[in-house]
């Protein structure tokens, strides 16, 4: 019997903008949709731990690019490498809610980098810790708070048929 996503996980992915993706395809690639946010969380944690505006600004460029494109830059690692080893299909394009989340993340990263650069180290650590936690939530449980904010502002996902 084919593996399926549970209702809660499917709904969380729909909130991120994957509601128009066939459930079978989504089931196949769902674990890999977390990769980009896991890498973002790791880099945000590193930049925060090092109090490094440089690391945070590099991640800002990645997040900003992800906000503008339906393909997250870190999705390319999977699409051009990992999937060949796993024999799975490419990741679907990211929807507007996920891209909104990346845009919000880029602003948050600039703020965190600014705090460290300006000598406001406790503020930088606090901001970076919260940012890292939000990214970890998506990377581990598919709970994307910025996508939830987007949906609250602009409407929920289309119902699945």
Describe this structure in words.
This protein has helices spanning 7-18, 23-33, 35-49, 53-68, 75-86, 96-117, 121-141, 145-154. It is mainly alpha-helical and 161 residues long. The protein has one domain (12-154). The longest helix has 22 residues, at 96-117.
Q: Mind sketching the topology for me?
A:
Layout (H helix, E strand, L loop, with lengths): L6 H12 L4 H11 L1 H15 L3 H16 L6 H12 L9 H22 L3 H21 L3 H10 L7
Short description, anyone?
The protein has helices at residues 7-18, 23-33, 35-49, 53-68, 75-86, 96-117, 121-141, 145-154. It has 161 residues and is mainly α.
Helix content: over 70%
Q: DSSP helix count?
A: 8
Which regions contain 5 or more consecutive residues with pLDDT less than 50?
none
How many beta-strand segments?
0
How far apart are the termini?
21 Å
Structural class, judged by helices and strands?
Answer: mainly alpha
Beta-strand fraction estimate: under 5%
Order of helices and strands: HHHHHHHH
What oligomeric state is this? single chain
Taken from the alpha-carbon principal axes, the silhouette is globular
Integer average pLDDT = 95
Q: What is the gyration radius calculated from CA atoms? A: 16 Å
Indicate how many domains the architecture comprises: 1
What about the largest sheet?
Answer: none
């Amino acid at each position: 019997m084919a593996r399926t996503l549970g209702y809660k996980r499917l709904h969380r992915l729909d909130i991120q903008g994957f509601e128009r993706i066939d459930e079978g395809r989504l089931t196949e690639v769902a674990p890999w949709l977390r990769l980009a946010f896991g890498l973002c969380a790791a880099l945000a944690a590193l930049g925060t731990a090092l109090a490094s505006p440089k690391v945070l600004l590099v991640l800002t460029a990645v997040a900003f690019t992800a906000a503008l494109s339906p393909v997250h830059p870190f999705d390319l690692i999977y699409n051009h490498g990992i999937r060949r080893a796993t024999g799975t299909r490419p990741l679907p394009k990211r929807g507007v809610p996920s891209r909104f989340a990346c845009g919000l993340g880029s602003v948050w990263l600039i703020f965190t980098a600014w705090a460290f650069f300006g000598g406001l180290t406790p503020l930088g650590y606090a901001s970076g810790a919260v940012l890292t936690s939000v990214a970890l939530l998506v990377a581990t449980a598919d709970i994307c708070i910025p996508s939830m904010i987007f949906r609250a502002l602009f409407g929920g996902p289309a119902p699945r048929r």
